[in-house]
Structure formats: C-alpha cells, structure tokens
Amino acid sequence: MTRGRAVGLSDRSFFLDPEFNMAVRLSLFIIAALCISCSTAAAQPVATFTGGSISRDEITAYMISTGQRDIDPVRTLETSVDEELRANALWLIEHAAKRIPWEAQLAAEARDAGYVLPEADSATAANLFDKCLSGWLRLELATGIDEPTTDSLRAAYQRLGGTLNRPERWDVAYIFRHVRNNGDESTWEHEENLLEDVRERVSRGEMRFGQAAFLYSQAPSSTRNGRIGTVDTDSKYRRDFVEAVMGFEKTGLSDIVRLENGVYLFEIGAIHPARFIGFEEAMHRHDLRFLLVQNARSKALDDQLEAIAGNSEQNADQLAQYVLDTQDTVPAECQTLLRITEDRLLAYRWFDTKHARDLAPGETQVEEYYRTRSSEMREEGQFLLLRYLLPLGSRADSPDSRVERQELAIKIREAAIRGATDDGLRRRYAGSGLMIERSGWVRGSGSAEADSDLLAAEEGKLTGVHVLKEGAVFYRLLKRRTPPVRPLEEMRAYIEQNVHRLNRTKLEEDLLRRYLEEIEFEERWHEIDTNVNSPSS
After folding, report:
1. Could you tell me the strand order of the sheet in which 169-178 lies?
2. Looking at the predicted structure, is the pLDDT value of residue 381 above 60?
C-alpha cells in the first residue's frame, strides 16, 4: 500500500500566518496526499504460520477494511519513541495478524458451503476496491505531470490572489446597545453610561471582555463572547461600523462609539497590515513558489481526472473502471485490500450463520444478565421539575440584556419563596414572557450548576437563578427518586442482543485461540522493535 512522505520547507512562516486561507490549506493537504509514494516494506513478515505468513501490507489493508484508513501500526512501531503509541501499535498488529489467516479460513469454508455474501457487504468491499483503484490512478497521473510552465504558474497566482494579497485587517470583538431611531438624548446617554461602566470593570480586571459581551451585548455575537473575527474594507457589515473599526490605530479597548443604530464598545485583538505580493516576488520566495507549483499541478491533475470521470471527487467508481479498462494488471495493494475485506465480511457472516444455535441467548443467561446488571435496567430520570424561564429576546435589538433577565428572575424567585402561586406569578409577570413548565422524569436540568443545586435541594424547594443560552431560569424540585428497575419482559430484547454479543465474543476468542495453535502461529512483530532507532523512509 502507499505511504505518506513528508514535504520539507525551508521557510514555513507563510504557512503559519493565521490569515492563511483554509481552502488553500485543504488544497495543500490534498496535494500532499497525491504526492505520496510506495514505501519499502519491511523484509521480515509480521507473523508466520504453517503454510504462510502475514505481511505489513496485509496489516495496512486490514486497517483500511475496518475503517482505520490513516493507521499504519507497523510504521508507528518502526518510527515512534512514544511508549503509548507503540503499545497501541503492537496491539493493532497482533489483533490484525491473528485474525487475517483465521478469517481467510472461515471465508474459504463459507465458499465451500455455497454461502453468498449479502449484497450490502459486497457493495462495501467493492466500494473500498474502487477507492483504492481511483487513488492509485491519481498517484500515477500526479507523478506523470510535467513541471508547470510560467503561464500555468501565473494562472495559479491569479487563482490564489485572495490568499497572497489582502487589505489591512482588524481582529474585532464588540458589545452593542441598541437605541431606536426616535430615542431621545437621555436614552443615548443611559446606554453610553452603561457601556462606560462595563469598560471600567473590564479595564480593572473585574470581568473579561467576553463575559461582559455575553451579559450586556444585544448583538448576535454575544453568544461568541462578542467576537466576529476580522474586519476589512470588503467586510459585509454596516458601512459606519466598518469605518469605525478602520479608525482604530492600536489594540485593546476602544472608547464608547456612537453609531446610527446604537452605542458600541470595541476590543481590538490585533491589527494585521495590508499585504501585496506580486507574481515575480512570489516566484522568488521558496514557500510561495512551492504553493504556486502545487496549485498548478493540482489544476493539471483535476483537468485529467475531469476528462476521465467528469466530477472526479464523486466518481471513484468511474476512475476505478478506467483503471480496469486500461491496465494489464490490477495494482497488488488493491487486490490485497479486496481479498482482506471480502474474507473479513464473509467470515463473520458465516460465523453467525454456522454458530446461530450456540450464540442464541438462553433463558438462564437472560435472567442472570437482568439480575446482575440492574443499573442498565433502570428507567430514565431522577428529577421531576417545574422550570421557571425568562427567555431572552430573539431579536438583535432586544432591549433586555441577560443581566436584566437575571435580576427579574431573582425577583420572581423571591416572590415564589414568599408564597406567590404559579398562577399569580403568571398574571403578575405576564408581560415579561415568563414560562412555567412541568417536566416528566429527567436526568437533570441541562445545566451543571443547576444540577448541583438540584442534588442539594429538598423536595418542594427552589434552586438558584442561572443564566443559560435560552434565558434566565430557576427550578422547583417536585420529586426525587432512584429510577426504578424496568420489568424483565420490557428489557428482554436489549438483554438478548447484549448476551448474543457476549456469547459471540467468547466463542470467537476460544475458536481463534485453538486455530492459532493448530497452524503454529508465530509472532514476529516484536522484531520490528529493533528498527526504532533507524526509522525507515
């Protein structure tokens, strides 16, 4: 199978730029994948047994067939000095090496018995085979692409222009207080004074800016601690907003800014200078020329793939068919993958069919599972609750801040403690949006802090007020219980499924152990350990 090869760069500073376009990072990742080459397999087998051996390529194919495409435990064992990684790699190698010959034996037995692999499993194996063939074709085409011409590099520069060049940018977070168009001067001053007080508290370190934004800002960004990322001349924000940001010449907290729709307090995290890199300069910088070359090669490869299969990313089967139609032999790694995958799927389907009676749960097993695992048999839900919720305004210009909601919730809670009925609270606070809802049995409230209150509360008592994403909330604990155990018949299907799985695992392990003894299976993977000080390329 193919292996990755690291690409070295003498100047990585450009790639560490936080403004580096994510799409280009992805394209580089794809190109790196396309540039991988076949590694030299270790000379010694991973394991031997009577009549055969297990190779590292078979181990890799087994990893892919089980969905672990990016894992190469043999290479990890050869190159890594991390003890935990090496221990995991040893376990994976041992697991795969022992099962490959056993599954091949079971698959052969199934074929001799005329057992046919279910259609869904056949499709799974065929899909992996197609992906292997299309991946092999991509590698073949990529290695045959000529060095890009100046014209193709210039075209790559045009495609990447937005990544190489950018205007000046500001990292921005802000707190916003809305003032309606007909707001009088006293309203403006009230909101400005509120933000001035917030600014002082943040400056003194009494709270972080993000906390203040969550509590006080009426903008959607309040749920992200006020942060909106970078702002530049092309940003799709209000024009007066962008112009205000572009006026900041240093980082940190701004003064209070009055714009058309309200007042703002900004926090500027960083100011990134404008950058323009011409084509000639890019060609003389090692890191940027590398970027242009890879983009040009990627475009050339995409053109070839499109000529074969249209949208190549969606047509692995078409690329695979092209390989089958144009190549004299199928790549050995793909043949290995198909064999390993078909054997594995066929072995386990046949195992279940052959041992159906042995795996079926008996009544004694069902009853013992029910008796010894009572924690799994219980109903859901520990608490029965009343929830008192003051939801936050859904509009960006809502005049209610989280602090105001919290303060009102505290007043409602105090009224409830003094004996106000729920109906009385609904009438008294009808205009506030107060919601009083009764739950069924639940595990908790959804808030870790509120759950701590519930665990400590007596039945009939109230928790404290908590500000959640949906609003300010407190709870009345109506009842607490230890969830009761469900009847056996209600849990029977769940138990039988788990007992079947346990029976399968035990029988599998017993038969696998016997089989390995019969074929004189011999571990060889520990010999790889000697290579750790001289990693293979």
Report:
1. 227-231, 169-178, 262-272, 252-259
2. yes
